[in-house]
UniProtKB/TrEMBL annotation:
SUPFAM superfamilies: RmlC-like cupins. This is Pirin family protein. It comes from Shewanella canadensis. Belongs to the pirin family. The keyword Secreted does not apply. GO terms for molecular function: metal ion binding. Residues 8-119 form the Pirin N-terminal domain.
Amino acid sequence: MISLRPADQRGEVDIGWLNSQHTFSFGDYYDPQHMGFSALRVINDDLVTPGAGFSTHGHRDMEIISYVQSGSIAHKDSEGNIKVLSAGEFQLMSAGSGITHSEYNASQTEPLKFLQIWIQPNALGGTPGYQQKNFGQAEGLTTIASPYGENRGEKGGETGGEKGKEGGGFELKQDATLSQLILAPKSEQVYQIEAGRNIYVHHVAGQLSIEDNPLIAGDGAKITDMQAITFVNASDRQATSLIFNLP
């Protein structure tokens, strides 16, 4: 079954320096029909004005992923990480037993647009962690985060990910895989799904359809009880989506 989450039906918060579109209930936005999906708790589509941002605040027991679509993030945390994330980069901050951090638009002249994603871990506590990388723009599926990380083996396709690739991406404290899908114009991609797995698609850019369901930027889709889905890009432009393979 495929259940669509149209971009224009998301919750919205606009406080001047921040405009945020919430896929799931978050902060002052509450919708009992959209409280998360499996271990996926938050997808916030944030637009931050130049020089503004989130002052120092704390998290614990959450896997927090940021994906910069345009602009750059100035990041600083209590573990001593002082970083700048540029457009195209991903960051995974494992809050573990507790971490504080701040996130600001690193530019005084250009806006910042990024996705903030929260995934609930399958183990509480532990040492906080930080990972950052640009995974490039290769066509097809690229693993961004998985329980295995870059250096631990995973049989290709076991969780619906890239066929024939060992591991890949950040090490995530959950039985979940986040992949980036980039489809060239006039192309398609079949995605296999193991029994019992739940899939969430957040569409980032371009035009895409999933089993004849069209998606535009910001749209989402919950996918359950299916063995495979086919992504189709019938347009003349590249299309990009994030795919969450969840327990």
